[in-house]
UniProtKB/TrEMBL annotation:
Origin: domain of life: Eukaryota
Domain EF-hand as annotated: residue spans: 62-97
Organism: Dryobates pubescens
GO molecular function ontology, one term from the record: calcium ion binding
InterPro entries given in the database record: EF-hand-dom_pair (IPR011992), EF_hand_dom (IPR002048), S-100_dom (IPR034325), S100_Ca-bd_sub (IPR013787)
Protein name: Sentan
């Protein structure tokens, strides 16, 4: 498969895109590369993708009730698949509860 950086570079609309636009495009590309032809992921695939591609944000969250609730939802046997919108909600939820977000908030940028 084509590396994400190369895929990003090939998207004409992102030629002069902002860091935030590129961040969201990267999330969309990671999702699309894992999704089925209908553009959806099984819950097991979603969990695997989060564990491999979002490791820094979920590390150390295993004992938090909200994290366990999210993961247990993904562990449920269900025919329901996750679409991109639901995936992004999961990303935001996991980001908001993460220790890494606090570390990011504490960063001081220097000029």
């Amino acid at each position: 498969s084509t590396p994400i950086a190369k895929q990003l570079a090939s998207i004409k609309g992102l030629g002069k895109g902002s860091d935030l636009e590129k961040a969201f495009a990267t999330a969309a590309l990671v999702y699309n590369n894992a999704a089925d032809p209908e553009g959806k992921l099984s819950k097991a695939e979603t969990k695997s993708l989060l564990q491999t591609q979002f490791q820094g944000f979920i590390q150390g969250q295993e004992n938090k009730p909200k994290y366990r609730e999210i993961i247990s939802t993904l562990d449920e046997e269900s025919e329901n698949k996750i679409d991109f919108e639901d995936f992004m909600v999961l990303l935001v939820s996991l980001t908001l509860m993460s220790d890494l977000l606090q570390e990011i908030k504490n960063m001081k940028t220097t000029k």
